[in-house]
Amino acid sequence: MKTPSRSVLGKDKEIRASHRQDSADLLIFILLLTLTILTIWLFKHRRFRFLHETGLAMIYGLLVGVVLRYGIHVPRDVNNITQSCPVNSSPATLLINVSGKYYEYTLKGEISTIEMDDVPDNEMLRKVTFDPEVFFNILLPPIIFHAGYSLKRRHFFRNMGSILAYAFLGTVLSCFVIGLLMYGCVMLMKQMRQLDGDFFFTDCLFFGAIVSATDPVTVLAIFNELQVDVDLYALLFGESVLNDAVAVVLSSSIVAYQPQGDNSHTFEVMALLKSFGMFLGVFSGSFALGVATGVVTFTKLRDFQLLETALFFLMSWSTFLLAEACGFTGVVAVLFCGITQAHYTFNNLSAESQDRTKQLFELLNFLAENFIFSYMGLTLFTFQSHIFNPMFIVGAFIAMFLGRAANIYPLSFLLNLGRRNKIKSNFQHMMMFAGLRGAMTFALSIRDTATYARQMMFSTTLLLVFFTVWVCGGGTTPMLSCQRIRWVFNMSIAEGSERRSTKQESAWLFRIWYNFDHNYLKPILTHSGPPLTATLPPCCGPLARFLTSQQAYEVRDCTDATGAHTSSGPAYPGATGSDDLDRELTYGDHELVMRGTRLVLPMDDSEPPFTDTHRHLQM
């Protein structure tokens, strides 16, 4: 019987050791999340508001990063051999001939001459450093989808014009303001010989795009707990949801800027127009793909709730991957897929699947978000290519605040010219203060750290996120008191005032869309709304009967039996009345209300499902 050679036994030993190391690395992140959850419970029990769970996760990540970087050292392997072999490039794979046997080695990264003696420590730190694609393909989709799936339609559409202005015009304006200011800072650094590598204007614009993505999760959590003005909540949440998508597409368009000629960083009008066309094409294509996927997510498995929930989950996640595979942006696609599924597909799910999907995506959002923030703290010490330049960092902080100011104040002035419900100055100051940076900014900056400029941007971005989450997030409650922004404690009074103002303040464009959606799209795509036999002309009777499901007739009969339309008269045929729109806007979000105690930011505004004007508020 032939015994294994020493090389084979040594290889098996290395594999087992690597497996144990990988398990220990994953255990570190599990323990981080566990510790974060326990501390969140303590903070909620004691009603501490000065630090959000994301800030806690970052602190724990920092502590673990310090231990991994300075407290643990792997013994040096005496069998490691350093050989010099001059080549013109860095191949991804090397075949080494050792005594007639070929061994394959893969490229793991550049090692400086200073770190030659610390290769084992570097290997350990690399193992706790994830591939950036993990963030985009695994951790970001549930966060973005949950934002769209739990979007509160009533307050979003009441402020739709303002939200779109802040998210699109404001993000682009902020990007260019930050980019121009940082370009001036880089030019000054070159004059003072503070740069050790190339840093172009397109790099500055890219930095402006990723820093313009806001994530005020800490502020919104406090807003929800204190029941701050719902319009302020809607403006901040709606802007943060959409401007993440805009920032992703904008950064991709800047990277795609390619003038003709040898110098790819010169200004050229045609290249600029091409990038602008790419921005519009990618965004509109991603939007269309997300909406189409959300619309076609039919489930006929109501009798098998587990299968129904699994199919819904896979269709939702596949939207992100499908968009990325087609050359679009998965963030935009999965966001609008979530919004569309909440509006249409949710109504077709069984009651058990409705609860399951809400709880599933809420859990995934909570875990992914806290994992990213804990990893941010960890990577401050485990990332091996940090470049901290004090001048660039100071310039980035100044540019970030000026870019946020250029987004909020000029646009608020222009929007107030046409708004009936004005955006007050204290709201504007709060929106300026609440422009935190978070998961999207981090994910965009860590996706490419190959060049000197990208490494400096990533290191600076980490500091920006830490400062805004800890300082701005922790100062939310004092800032609310300073700006004298009201806290709503009597929700029944607030509900009554909002219902009275909804009909007058809803966007006229949305009223037109609502009539079309309520009378034609919902009857086709869901079992709610009036049957098509009641809204289509008599000449379309056969088609209407073919497209109308039996459940739609049952829902209509049930609605008529409860007298839902007795106060406003028949809602069909013809256009839907304004009272129906008011009822839809006021009560149409009941299916997205979460029950129980929430550990993560509730994306709704904690409204109860309203079915009776005399029913008490459900907690």
Automatic annotation (TrEMBL):
Renumbered residue ranges of the record's region Disordered: 598-619
Residues passing through the membrane, by range: 26-43, 55-72, 134-151, 163-188, 200-223, 278-298, 310-339, 360-381, 387-406, 458-481
Entry membrane topology: Multi-pass membrane protein
InterPro entries named among the record's database cross-references: Cation/H_exchanger_CPA1 (IPR018422), Cation/H_exchanger_TM (IPR006153), NaH_exchanger (IPR004709), NHE-6/7/9 (IPR002090)
Keywords per UniProt: Antiport, Cell membrane, Endosome, Ion transport, Membrane, Sodium, Sodium transport, Transmembrane, Transmembrane helix, Transport
One term under GO cellular component: plasma membrane
Localization (cell): Cell membrane; Recycling endosome membrane
Example GO molecular function: potassium:proton antiporter activity
Lineage top rank: taxon: Eukaryota
GO BP, sorted A to Z: regulation of intracellular pH; sodium ion import across plasma membrane
Domain spans labelled Cation/H+ exchanger transmembrane: 36-481
Similarity annotation: Belongs to the monovalent cation:proton antiporter 1 (CPA1) transporter (TC 2.A.36) family.
Name listed for the protein in its UniProt record: Sodium/hydrogen exchanger
Organism from which the protein derives: Takifugu rubripes
Gene: slc9a6a
